[in-house]
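Researcher: We're teaching a course module on how sequence relates to structure. For the next exercise, students receive a sequence and then see the predicted structure as tokens, so they can try to spot secondary structure elements on their own. Here is the exercise chain.
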Amino acid sequence: MDQLKPNPANSSPLTPLTFLERAAVVYGDCTSIVYNATIYTWFDTYNRCLRVASTIKSFGIERGHVVSVVAQNIPAMYELQFAVPMAGAVLNNINTRLDARTISVLLRHSESKLVFVDFHLQSLVLESISLFPSNVSRPILILITDDHDHLDHDSWSLDFLETYENMVKKGSPDFNWVRPESEWEPMTLNYTSGTTSSPKGVVHSYRSIFIITFDSLINWYVPKQPVYLWTLPMFHSNGWTYTWGMAAVGGTNICLRKFDASIIYNSINRHNVTHMSGAPVILNMLANYPKAKPLKSPVQFLTGGAPPPAAVVLRTESLGFVVSHGYGLTEAAGVVVSCAWKLKWNSFPATERAKLKARQGVRTLGLTEVNVVDPETGVSVKRDGLAMGEVVLRGGCLMLGYLKNPEATSKCLRENGWLYTGDVGVMHPDGYLEIKDRSKDIIITGGENVSSVEVESVLYSNPLVNEAAVVARPDEYWGETPCAFVSLKEGMVMKPTQVEIIEFCRERLPHYMVPKTVVFMEELPKTATGKIQKFNLRGIAKDMSSLPGATSRM
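Model: And here is the predicted structure for the students to work with:
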């Protein structure tokens, strides 16, 4: 068989953009996007993306140029996930909650040639551009207006070359979109979520995005034509690839610019939502909404990020949400480890099922291998659910590397063939992975390792606690001690004291794991993707290190 080799017919580069092309044929008259009074079909969406892509090309954008988007979950944001790469450019979604200085740094680092700007965020982006040094060329700016608000050129800033809707109007529906010459070409550039002080630009190829999109649909058992509510920011790893995935299955995208628990519940009932995603903070929001009523029909909810506390899973599922927990990272483009459910677990008590769902689980089909190893030796840890090590991955959905950062790339993508995640976990005897912490979040007190996630899980089981996060507080004697930051549920007359919270933990944890300090806050600081900003909390705990443990309220 040596004479049989790849040929042009069987080696076309993989690209998820073909999903939209197919959707226009198979689901052409079916609803693709719903946003306020705006409704599009899949034929409309394909047509609009072609028009925008052709106009992008007319601005002189070449293959490999970076095009950035700063927008909320609105129709244009969804369309640009297709239109930008259809023009041959590299898509760069930017976190809308970053400050102007950080956005300015990212635009310069990526050498972005063109920036699409949500009308509501124009002052933020204009400020970021004003911070450019005089010798650095500025990108072209395009203004995205809302719900077809057509503005006269005199009514919007001259800093913007054009509006998005005018680009749609001027573009060609017959545009021959730019297909990748190689599936290894870069397709997306996403900067890490901002939970670290030095965000890195993660570059993914068409190949990795194609693989993870297929994988994400199969892993979550997404059927044809689901109704997907966008509570997960599209700028966060391209909405875990469900931006392209919804085109593959002809789903309906329910877009929300902003939301709270009331809006989410109203949207679910109004549009008969079947699927939604988000960080555990969204689950917590839904579970603690005082006017929440059981859903008319089940809604599949995929959560990721920090492990969802069992108590939160239990409360949410009692309302009718079917919670699936996945683990992923920007470097993997989406969910690559999930808690594959076994039928026999359905007979377990509800509390036990919730604990199982809080585990990350096993690799998805698109990932080649996952392991937990000693970060120094690379040797696998014991599969006893106790021995902790670093989580490592390998597979075709992993990133090409970090933009302009070979040192960080080589540190993450090691020569031994593994991607080192920086997450600390254990492997259970049944082969299921459980994340214990980020490596920087492990608390070492008196020589003992404390998983902040385990302590947080106990805090969330307290019926008075709304949110909880545990970080290290420097201590002269112990080195570090656990410091808990807690927000309480609304409407309480009698609020718990620090002593009561500590006693609650002491009854359920080994003494060395019990928080020595409790700080009460109105709300815990979060990133735009719903992750609690532990680096901020660590700074507060460090400033408190010279003070004796005492009840604190902020």
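Model: If you want an answer key for the exercise: The domain at 442-553 is CATH 3.30.300.30 (GMP Synthetase; Chain A, domain 3). The first strand starts at residue 31 and ends at 35.
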